[in-house]
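Chapter review. Work through the record for Putative ABC transporter ATP-binding protein YxlF before attempting the end-of-chapter questions.
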Amino acid sequence: MIDIRDLTLSYSGATVLEVPELSVADGAITYLIGLNGTGKTTLLRCICGVIAPAAGTVRVDDTPIRAHRATPATLGMHLNYRAFDPRHTARRHLRWIARARGLPAGRVGDVLETVDLTRFADRRLAHYSLGMLQRVGIAAALLCEPRTLLLDEPLNGLDIAGIRWIRELLRRLADAGTCVLVATHLLDEVERNADHIVILGNRRILTDRPFADIMSDLGPGETSLEDAYLRIAGPPTQLTSGVAP
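Structure tokens for Putative ABC transporter ATP-binding protein YxlF:
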């Protein structure tokens, strides 16, 4: 579970996002949506302790998050598919992460199998496609058998089979009790798999509601999450702050 209170996030001296209160539940897939510049990636980085908030607190599975400290043992994250040494193989990369986090080396083989990369595990990452790099990042996030899982745009670069695979993976994890928080722009996929929606815009949370409730409140002429999103968030010219992802 993720619990946020009185959070203020800043970038280059400007306030990017203010979150008075947000709880992301266990056993559910929560999608974080909003245009570029609304603070999605900045929020995920703060939850992971990569950056420090200007104010406020974040707790993950009852553990207070402190920036630049050790990652909580129950937290898995994949925030950047470029965060690899291209000279490494997938197996070496995952072994390095496992060692850094004090995890058993045997988990590497398990997660390689989970993401269907066992047969490519000893190929250098420089020769991986974007979709394969996404799978390596997801494998790294799964090494700790997370109670809370954060993913930033994990669908980018995946083909049709890959999108279906991650959809089913996230559903299995949520059904097993994992707190899953995913930032994405792909609203069609959100409609297929979401339990809960958080919409960011204008430096704040515009909506924090179950997906079913949002869809049951569609207005006249509205047929999709995209329609609901545009009504809630307003025209695109009003959405982006232009200072953070």
